[in-house]
Write a structure and sequence with these properties.
binds nicotinamide-adenine-dinucleotide; binds (2S)-2,3-dihydroxy-3-methylbutanoic acid; 9 helices; 6-stranded parallel sheet; Dihydrodipicolinate Reductase, domain 2
Length: about 350
């Protein structure tokens, strides 16, 4: 399968390494509107075909999949262009800045008959995945409470300066991942309420958010995130989990320690992710999930299945982001049917 990648920035390097690790996949073309970045990445990954605009890339064709690794403002135009050119699409999160765009993008690819997946990779982190699988396999019976927590003081702004500049920050960039983990664990959501704070005076958006979710299946979950939490050991970029079920509990604690307690027994496991040859700590957790989600996408295309993180599925995660901002600004509980 031939892949063209648009957006050769900070995170796209992980996509490119992951594509090289997947059998039967080759990145044949790169596109970036920044010529210097484009030529550096093309040289590093020995990719000869390069374009400084997406129209020219699509006009040239010769690929089955487009991997969109640009920031959110370009996503709608690029996804719709991909749909017009009838290729499979993988698009980075956040998929869109609003629900109207997101729904139009899903509809456009649906009409083309191709596969659309949002690169929502946190639920693919192997430690998180183990907890999801244990819960789904009934390890603690029916769950009734959950907490998905991401608290850090890590400087994300030096690698991704745009994160300091937007009106929206932590819910749209990071909260989106942990809201998606909550959906993977407990299903879709009926109502939610949220509070937000900005602690770091040097950024524009909120860097702390606390959300309370009422899931369709009856679970209540607390989803909390912060980039203002200065503590040791620093846990970036780990999502910590607490799940209570009728028969026991599942905990994913700092340092990738999974504990399952059931009917009086307790089992502790080290679920630390591998450090892939091209990965580096502390990002190795995220980097492994990039490989796993991209492999999932290829498997789905080959088997004619919808990805777990299809565009359609991601509308639910995105609607939680919108609901959180609405709830925080109006200081009220939001019913998801409003979004
Ligand atoms: P970046 O700014 O470093 O890179 C984006 C690149 O896209 C730039 O080189 C820019 O020139 C190029 N670009 C922008 N619009 C373009 C267009 N229309 N045509 C061609 N090139 C264009 O950004 P980044 O930090 O790599 O983030 C990219 C996306 O990845 C964001 O949506 C971000 O949220 C996401 N991200 C995801 C994770 C994750 O774990 N899933 C981690 C980090 C970033
Ligand atoms: O995953 C992300 O989207 C990143 C980070 C982990 C730094 O929040 O922006």
């Amino acid at each position: 399968m031939k892949v063209a990648l648009i957006g050769c920035g900070f995170f796209a390097i992980n996509h490119l390494h992951a594509w090289s690790d997947i059998a039967g996949v080759e990145v044949v073309a790169l596109c970036d509107s920044n010529p210097q970045r484009l030529s550096e990445v093309a040289k590093d990954f020995a990719i000869a075909e390069v374009y400084d605009n997406a129209e020219a890339l699509f006009a040239a064709g010769g690929f089955d999949i487009v991997d969109i690794a640009t920031t959110v403002e370009s996503h709608r135009a690029l996804v719709e262009m991909a749909a017009r050119h009838s290729v499979h699409v993988i698009c980075q999160k956040p998929f869109a800045t609003n629900m109207k765009d997101a729904r139009a993008m899903v509809a456009a690819v649906e009409q083309s008959g191709k596969t659309l997946m949002v690169h929502e990779n946190f639920r693919w982190q192997s430690a998180v995945r183990t907890a999801v699988d244990e819960l789904r396999n009934g390890a603690i019976g029916t769950p009734f409470f959950g907490r998905v927590s991401f608290r850090s003081g890590y400087d994300v702004f030096s690698g991704q300066p745009y994160l300091a500049e937007g009106e929206r920050f932590i819910i749209e960039d990071l909260g989106i991942h942990i809201l998606d983990i909550s959906r993977a664990l407990f299903g879709d959501v009926l109502r939610m309420s949220a509070t937000t704070r900005r602690i770091n005076p040097q950024i524009k958006g909120e860097d702390v958010a606390t959300m309370l979710l009422d899931h369709e299946g009856g679970v209540t979950s607390v989803v909390d995130c912060s980039y203002a939490t200065k503590r040791e050991p620093e846990t970036f970029p780990q999502s910590l989990l607490e799940i209570d079920g009728e028969r026991g509990t599942i905990r994913l604690d700092a340092g990738y320690r999974l504990t399952i307690q059931r009917d009086g027994d307790s089992e502790a496991r080290d679920v630390a992710p591998p450090v892939l040859p091209w990965a580096e700590r502390p990002w190795h957790n995220i980097q492994e999930s990039v490989l796993l989600i991209q492999q999932h996408f290829i498997d789905c295309i080959r088997n004619g299945q919808q990805p777990e993180n299809s565009g359609y599925d991601n509308l639910q995660t995105l609607s939680l982001v919108e609901a959180a901002y609405l709830s925080a600004s109006e200081q009220r509980t939001v019913d998801l049917s409003e979004i």
